[in-house]
């Protein structure tokens, strides 16, 4: 992992091609893009940990539109130093300091709004609209997860908290998340990773409940840990340091230690064992790679009928709609698991969703509401029940 801010995007891609930074590939969505990918995964005896079962899992895409313009996002990253640049220095809100691209810092950015967090979000974002790059581009990723236990009791969790304060507060109100947080209906916030579009909207959650339990990967940087405090959190986050953590019977948090672009380390995903159906996998971005995620679940978890039932979230295949033939191997590989329901969105990419449909995969389409650009996959406000 590196803090190098001089590496250009061209150099980064060249390095990937030559294997110069091959150790980072898994976390950047470039893991195992060849036809022999599964052969390169470690062969281990299946451990099949029994973690219980649930009756059902319902997901609601509060927001899957992490940003609204790919060109603006990539332009900012490139000018700031490339894909390996520290995300806190790029100049995006909420850490813009008015100095321009690549000249930001966590400390300078948050100092402009810290006193406003978490209650005066409109004022805080208005300040950032004057200081940050492309202030209208941030959106965010966040999903409501509703778990029904075998006894019929129901439990709600928030997976990630988006990016733009303005957009996320609107999205929370649209789906009633603000009231769920206030009333304590949501039992915990699970942050998949430290990336801007999944995490920087934290004050929008803290505004309504700043004491709810919070799970984070133990690879968060010092800035990320400080932001939890600066956002107004009054609890102590659970730093996930084990590969497998049972959240409740039938619900497992799976930790992956992978380097990710923009100086982020590690991602967590969720696995559910739905009684009489099988395994359901839920991800934020899936920077660990779809092959690593599915293979880990196959090797480590026990689930009904020994079959994969469903998958939801970002699958990190061509997230910038820059299709390359090597991605076809990942599309083909997904078919190995014979999912009954595929609910993809976010960094899966619309082109990827179309490829899934072309191969006859059971992709659940969406309604293209609330600024989701296409019905090819589950968008903002759409739901799916496993």
Record the SSE blueprint.
Blueprint: H1 9-18, H2 37-40, E1 49-50, E2 56-63, H3 70-80, H4 106-111, H5 121-131, E3 142-148, E4 154-159, H6 165-175, H7 177-183, E5 186-190, H8 196-199, H9 202-206, E6 214-217, H10 222-230, E7 238-240, E8 244-248, E9 251-260, E10 264-274, E11 278-283, H11 290-300, E12 301-302, E13 308-313, H12 327-334, E14 341-344, H13 350-358, E15 383-385
How would you describe this structure to a colleague?
With 386 residues, the chain is an alpha/beta fold. The protein has a domain at 49-66 and 139-385: Ribonuclease Z/Hydroxyacylglutathione hydrolase-like (Metallo-beta-lactamase, Chain A, 4-Layer Sandwich). The chain has 13 helices and 15 strands. The chain has helices spanning 9-18, 37-40, 70-80, 106-111, 121-131, 165-175, 177-183, 196-199, 202-206, 222-230, 290-300, 327-334, 350-358; strands spanning 49-50, 56-63, 142-148, 154-159, 186-190, 214-217, 238-240, 244-248, 251-260, 264-274, 278-283, 301-302, 308-313, 341-344, 383-385. The strands form 3 sheets. The protein has a 7-stranded mixed β-sheet with strand order 7-6-5-4-3-2-15. The chain has a 6-stranded mixed β-sheet with strand order 8-9-10-11-13-14, with helices on one face. Helix 12 (327-334) links the parallel strand 13 (308-313) and strand 14. The longest helix has 11 residues, at 70-80. The two termini are 37 Å apart. Residues 1-35 have low confidence and may be disordered.
């Amino acid at each position: 992992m590196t803090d190098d801010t001089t590496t250009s995007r061209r150099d980064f891609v060249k390095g990937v091609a030559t294997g110069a930074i091959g150790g980072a590939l898994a976390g950047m969505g470039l893991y195992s893009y060849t036809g022999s990918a599964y052969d390169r995964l470690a062969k281990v005896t299946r451990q099949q940990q029994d973690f219980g079962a649930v009756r059902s899992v319902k997901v609601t895409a509060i927001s899957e539109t992490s940003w609204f313009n790919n060109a603006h996002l990539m332009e900012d990253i490139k000018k700031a130093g490339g894909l390996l640049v520290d995300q806190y220095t790029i100049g995006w809100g909420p850490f813009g300091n008015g100095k321009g691209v690549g000249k930001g810092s966590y400390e300078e950015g948050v100092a402009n709004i810290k006193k406003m967090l978490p209650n005066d979000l409109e004022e805080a974002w208005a300040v950032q609209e004057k200081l940050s790059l492309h202030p209208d581009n941030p959106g965010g990723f966040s999903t409501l997860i509703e778990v029904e236990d075998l006894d019929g009791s129901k439990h709600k969790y928030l997976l990630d908290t988006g990016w733009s304060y303005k957009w996320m507060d609107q999205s929370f109100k649209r789906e009633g998340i603000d009231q769920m947080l206030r009333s304590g209906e949501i039992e915990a916030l699970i942050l998949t990773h430290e990336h801007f579009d999944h995490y920087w909207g934290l004050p929008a959650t803290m505004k309504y409940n700043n004491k709810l339990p919070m799970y984070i990967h133990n690879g968060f940087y010092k800035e990320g840990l400080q932001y939890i405090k600066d956002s107004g959190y009054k609890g102590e986050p659970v730093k996930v340091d084990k590969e497998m953590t049972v959240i409740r019977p039938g619900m497992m948090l799976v930790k992956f230690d992978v380097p990710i672009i923009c100086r982020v380390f590690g991602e967590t995903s969720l696995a559910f064992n739905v009684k009489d159906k099988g395994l359901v996998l839920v991800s934020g971005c899936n920077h660990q790679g779809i092959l690593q995620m599915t293979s880990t679940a196959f090797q480590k978890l026990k689930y009904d009928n020994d079959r994969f039932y469903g998958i939801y979230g970002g699958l990190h295949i061509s997230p910038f709609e820059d299709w390359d033939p090597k991605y076809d191997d990942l599309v083909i590989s997904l078919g190995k698991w014979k999912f009954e329901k595929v609910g993809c969105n976010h960094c899966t990419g619309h082109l990827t969703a179309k490829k899934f449909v072309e191969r006859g995969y059971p992709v659940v389409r969406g309604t293209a509401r609330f600024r989701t650009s296409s019905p090819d996959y589950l968008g903002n406000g759409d739901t799916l029940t496993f």
